Amino acid sequence: MAALKKTSDNACVTKTHQFIKKMSDWNKLLRCYTQNIDDLDDRAGLYAGFDSKADVVKMHGDLNTVKCTLCSHSQESDPSILSIFDSGEAPACPRCFEIASNREKLGKRAVNIGTLRPNIVLYDEHHAKGELIADLQNSDLKKKPDVLIVMGTSLKIVGVKRLIKAFAEPIKEKGGFVLYVNMNEASKEWESTFNYQLIGTSDSACEKLWKRMDELQEIQAQNKIKREKQKEQRLLKKEREMAVVSSIENHFKAVKCTPMLILDVEAIKKESDKSKFDFSNHAATLEGNF
Question: Which domain of life is it from (predicted)?
Fold first, then answer.
């Protein structure tokens, strides 16, 4: 286990992690549920946790912490603990050791002392954060995501299979799509679940998706500029129309009469784009007291 931790520490952030971080920066990432037990997500700048603000939810724990097999005490995995693991032994739990020492001083019956192990969740093992993960999943489902991307999993773990199918069904019902990325094609069990399959590495798929996302971002930026110009044109048109109305009002204030107007509306529309408007051609007034 110590060797695995060292390998994890020496690993580098991949294109896949960078893509997930980019999605988070673009506010396009609802959540990333991962089976990985390394800390590459954290090093990529993603927040891993079990609350609503978490970018990443680690369903199988991680190698950065250890926990007691007896009292469930957990702590950071430091070099001294790793060296004991490296020797083939399991470190004693400091909390259990403290409790046992205090009992011995008081002349009480001796109790067992637990050992530390990496804080990872093995297959079919109870997850201490299981309820929190379930709450997040239910919350995410209520937000009705549009896309589900499944990458780099063999689709054999029961809990993972259940999670994928729980998200896939409502996403497809609302017109979204489910994408599967893996080195091997999914079995027939998943034919009705995945809309698309990309055969290859997660990194190569993410490079293509990243490029496409950049293109979409550029299109969105251009559309935003276009919408702003259209809005500006509408405002200018409205201002010109208001200027025409204001000119009419000022005209009748100047002649000090109670007007009855018969206006050529079509002519006003045509000439509203001009800087001046000749009322005499399109309006008739009757002066007098009514």
Answer: Eukaryota
Q: CB under 8 Å to 157, separation ≥6 — which residues?
A: 35, 123
Give the whole-angstrom CA distance, residue 127 versus residue 129.
5
Answer positive or negative: Cα dihedral of 197, 199, 201, 204. Answer: negative
Distance CA 144, CA 168 (A): 11
Distance CA(34)–CA(42), nearest Å, equals: 12
Report how far Cα 42 is from the mean position of its chain's Cα atoms.
15
Pairing of strands 196-199, 177-182: parallel
Ordered per-residue pLDDT tens for the chain, 290 residues = 678 888 888 889 999 999 999 999 989 999 999 999 988 999 999 999 999 999 999 999 888 899 999 998 999 988 889 889 888 899 999 999 999 999 999 999 999 999 999 998 887 788 888 899 999 999 999 999 999 999 988 898 888 899 999 999 999 999 999 999 999 999 999 999 999 999 999 999 998 888 877 776 677 778 788 888 888 888 888 888 787 767 766 666 665 555 454 455 555 555 555 545 454 554 444 344 33
Q: Which residues are catalytic?
A: 60
- Is 93 within any annotated ligand binding site? yes
Do the annotations mark residue 12 as ligand-binding?
no
Contact assessment for residue 191 and residue 162, using Cβ atoms and an 8 Å cutoff = no
Q: Which single residue is written with the structure tokens 């000749």? A: 278
Structure tokens at 197: 């399959």
Amino acid at residue number 11: A
CA–CA gap between residue 67 and residue 71 (Å, rounded): 8
Please count the other Cβ atoms lying within 10 Å of the Cβ belonging to residue 191.
9
Superfamily of domain 61-120: SIR2/SIRT2 'Small Domain' (3.30.1600.10)
